[in-house]
Amino acid sequence: MPLPRLLLLTLLTLMAFAANSVLCRLALFEERMDPALFTLLRLTSGALVLILLCSARRPPPPRQGDWGGALCLITYAAAFSFAYLTLTAGTGALLLFAAVQLSMLAPPLLRGERLPPRQLAGLLLAMAGLLCLLLPGIQAPDPLGAVLMIAAGIAWACYTLRGPRFSDALAANAGHFLMASLPAALIYLLLGHLDASPAAIGYALASGGLASGLGYALWYGVLPHLGRTLAASVQLLVPPLAILAGLIWLDESGSWRLYRTY
User: Which end of the chain has the least Cβ crowding within 10 Å, N or C?
Assistant: First the structure.
């Protein structure tokens, strides 16, 4: 892939990731939407958009995706939604993608592989930022929300690492979203309730169909050209985008602890 195109698609993908944090906070915090319903609408709308895009291609791509990827996706999506009941958009994004980077880069280190100095520095910075944010203090995040978001980051890292095994990014994401919608429906039946404003439903559908469905398809497309370590590192650009968006659209006050972490 030509470098300018790779840079553009990567930037669009990172903006979509940041948009997910903002849309989730808008639905849950501003509109008081149930997180289980948000998760269900996000995954089903993402599946619908991706299936329609696959159907529009000639010839339609063969069905791809598996239950391993679907379970990673539902774990990420559900933990992400419930975590944002107590976290701000920027704090949640920082916890999420610090956990993503650690999860993606730690396994090679444990196997004895050596990372280049810049990549090792990125890993250490992520660890330092995560520890700094979680230190006791007035601006420290809610412990349960932090644990859920870190779990979401680990699940997202697993989902990302499974991407290169599929030959068609769009078809793979369509399959994963469709299969993940089934456990999402079960979570909603057990924990959720139908009480949502039209605006909240719109935020959930935008998160699923646009920021998630199209964003993840783009991510699977650029991932083979980035590689594991670079893919983990560039995702740390998402938190400052989410922090800025939270300041603009959610009127979230940026704390000294959050800025110092960056």
Answer: N
